[in-house]
Every structure is written in C-alpha cells, then in structure tokens.
Amino acid sequence: MSVFFCLLFLEPMLTCHLWTGRFPLAFQLVPSLILLIGVFFLNESPRWLMEKDKQEEARAVLNKLRSGLDQELIDLELHEIRDVIVADRALGGVSWKSILTRPTWRKRLLLGCAVQAFGPLSGINVINYYGPRLYNILGISTHTSLMIIGISGALSIVYCTIGLWMLEKVGRVKPLIVSAAGLAAALLVNAVQAQYFNADNENQMRSMVAMNFVFSLFYTPLGIISWVYPAEIFPVEVRALGNAITTFTNWAVNLIFAQFSPNALSAIEFKYFYVFFVFNIIAMVCYIFFFPETKGRTLEQMDELFGDQLVPHAMKDPAGAKAAMEKQEVITQEAE
Prior knowledge:
mainly alpha
C-alpha cells in the first residue's frame, strides 16, 4: 500500500532516489503505530481470565463484549466457559505432546496446518512477490507493474472488509470451497493464455492482468479463514501451541516456495501456475470432505465437532451442565 501511495501521489515530488526508496518503508510505520496504540485498549480474553481463575474480571469483559444481549444468555456462556475449563483440568495429563498423541487434538492440528498451508500453496505469494517479473513477461514496465500490484493491494482491503462482515453469515467451509475453485480457475485461464500469448495483442495482455485481479478477489475467503479457523478449533489448553504450529506451517511453506519460485518463473514462466492450480484443486477436495463447519458455535462447543465433549454445554443444555458440575464438585470434595 505504501509503495502504491508513493507511486501514485508522491513520486513527482520525491525526485531524490534516496527518499524514493526510504519513504515507502517509513510510511509503513503509520499503521504499525496505530496497531501499537490500539493494543492498550484491548481487553484480555474472558477465557484466559477464567483459566487464571479471575472469574469476576472474565464476567466484566464478557458483559462488555456481549453488550445488548440478554444477561441470562451471557451468564450461560460464562458458565459454559467455566465448565469446559474445569472439565479439561480434571482430565489432567496435558503436555505439549498431547496435541500429537490425542487423536481428536491431532485431527484439529492437521486441519489447522492444512488450511494455513493452502494459503501459500494457492499461489498468492508468487503473484504478490514476483508480480513485476510476471508482468515483465507480458511486456509491462516495472513502474506499471508496481501500480497494478498496489491497486490490487488496495482492493484487497475492500474485499477483506466485506469478507469479515459476511463471515458469520455464510460460514467457513462454503467460502473456502468457492475460493479454491475460483483460484484454480483464474490460474488455469492465465496458464493456458500464456501458452498462446501474442505480444501484439493488448487485449489478451489486459485479460491476463484482469485474471490476477480475479485471483485476488477469490483469495479473500482463504486469506481470512486460514487465520480464523485454526484459532477456533483448538481447546483452551493447547490453543496457543496449536496456533503457533499452524502459523509456523504457513511461513515454512511460504519460505520453501520463495526459494525456488524465481528459478521456476525463469524456466517455465506462466506454466508454473499449473502447479498451484493442482494445489487449489486438492484444497477444494479437502474442504469438501474433511473440514467441519464451525459457524454459529462457541469455542467451547467445538468439542462436539471433534467427538471429545467432556461436559454438557450450558448454552444448549443448562440443566445437564449444572448437574454435571454438581457431580464434579462432589467428586472433588470426596477426593480431598
């Protein structure tokens, strides 16, 4: 975005090459500072507070987050959070190895790593990182290439804003399926067009650039959900570890492709898109057959999807949850 801003508005003024290179980097400090300041206005997670036995603080935060909802419903959610944490503690024996040794947790880890890996495997970073080289193949100058990439990045902000608003309305899995299909189609169109590319045909060049914009549009659901989905599915004891591993997967795959993508583009040019076309088809099949829908569920209710529910959930079965907690309290007292 900063590069786009500079190319569009400031390049005529920044005649000094020193400033032309430094300003785009310095301009990125602005959103960083906004983020840094905003952190101080964030509340701690009610689940983290409850895990640390700060029940009243957790209640206050949850009331603030659920402002406008019925108080009874908020109380039930708080009880649900408490009940699941207490049940998980009673289970005991949780270590960093548990995420690998417990089958249901291992399944969650595999799904989280998969959706994170499918991000870079979609081809998005090759197009973003090596856009100037791709557009140079089409005879487009570096200056114009950077403008195209900047406009695409600016539009991505609009796409993501709309996508976040729609996330709870349409769910996770269906947008992922549509995303993978659209990404595969956009890549296939450009890969085929490149085999019959005519440098004198400006309309064909424009259509190939346009397909990259289509690609960016279809990447939006994957770009959002690849970060949301792993954060939702892990139980509280290993949520931090699970998210760390899935995020590592994303950047590890990204690093691998960053190493040989320049050579691949030099050797086979747009035919390289066929590789990512295949990955997107594989991703679509995985979304259809292996990824459960998490829409409309609290974080505590994810255990229903993965078959490791320990206690009734207060928001669905208040009486059952109360009875289970009373039984647990009796067992704890007898053990003491």
